[in-house]
Amino acid sequence: MRVPVLAYHSNNISGNDYACNDHIALAEDLRLIHRNGLRIVPLARVVDVLLGDVPDSTVENAVALSFDDGSWFDWHDMAHPACGPQRGFAGILRDFSTETGTDVHATSFVIVSPDARAILDQTCLIGRGWWSDDWWIDAQREGLIAIESHSWDHNHHTLPSTVQREQRKGTFRTIDSHADADAEIRQASDWLDTALAPHRTSLFAYPYGESNAYLVEDYLPHHATEHRLRAAFDTAPRPVESTNDRWLLPRHVCGQHWKDPAELERLLAGAMA
Fold first, then answer.
1. NodB homology domain: from which residue to which, for each copy (predicted)?
2. Is residue 232 part of a domain?
3. What is the span of the domain harbouring residue 91?
């Protein structure tokens, strides 16, 4: 198994061309993936193969898609205050599916805490309530975008306080105790499982793409009955392979690991080699 997992951020809009707008990039990338004869499969299926629950053939010649942070730009068509109308990620996926007649699926890793998102809406967007969770259950029911965990509060540097015990913010590497991990990871699973029942969260993406030895080697593998996750993803630029540690699965990030369609095409070719 060699499956590239591509990550996009719907809040990444600073213009209206590929290099500075993840919405434009996603729309172009979907067509590039299709032209190259690759399928798009759910991220959960990649984990199923990794864990031996389904055969490798179910992800042969496939790519998986993920989105980070879970704002309205994942779901709604929005009027950006500087860059004008933007097709939401969900609409881009639907357009592609209609255009090509193929199945498409993505996983949105969401920041779970309502209080944290309300503040992030002020500090990272423009304070119009664009980071609420009112679309998550609709997304889960439709089946186009799965909702999974990006932690409780991202230990985000713009928050006045986070659950990290010493307030060492702006990194996830400081989540290195059972209490902090439970607050960031198990608490997020609990909230999502209640809000999106009967769906059960099972995948996690490390904020900032950052992990540490405690999370990878102790908390996640040894406390699975508490957090109930099956796998976790960082942002190492490699395809997911059968030999990977389930708590340290890689993803390629748009704008960081590729910046134009030609770079993505080379990345995909290398991943499939």
1. 59-217
2. yes
3. 2-111+135-148+202-272
- Residue 190 CA to residue 195 CA, distance in Å, equals 9
Write the CATH number for 14. 3.20.20.370
Residue 187 C-alpha from the chain's centroid: 18
Tens digit of pLDDT for each residue in 170-203?
A: 999 999 999 999 999 999 999 999 999 999 999 9
The DSSP call for residue 222 is H
Q: Are 254 and 14 in contact (CB under 8 A)?
A: no
Q: What is the pLDDT of residues 141-163, one digit of tens each?
A: 999 999 999 999 999 999 999 99
Q: What is the pLDDT of residues 228-244, one digit of tens each?
A: 999 999 999 999 999 99
Domain count, the chain: 1
Residue 168 lies in a domain: no
Phi (first) and psi of residue 6, to 5 degrees: -100, 135
Backbone angles phi, psi at 236, to 5 degrees: -75, 135
- Decide if 202 contacts 238 (C-beta within 8 A): no
Helix residue ranges per DSSP H, 107-209: 114-123, 136-142, 178-181, 187-195
Tokens 């030999």 — which residue? 243
Residue 177 inside a domain? The answer is no
Asked whether residue 194 is assigned to any structural domain, the reply reads no
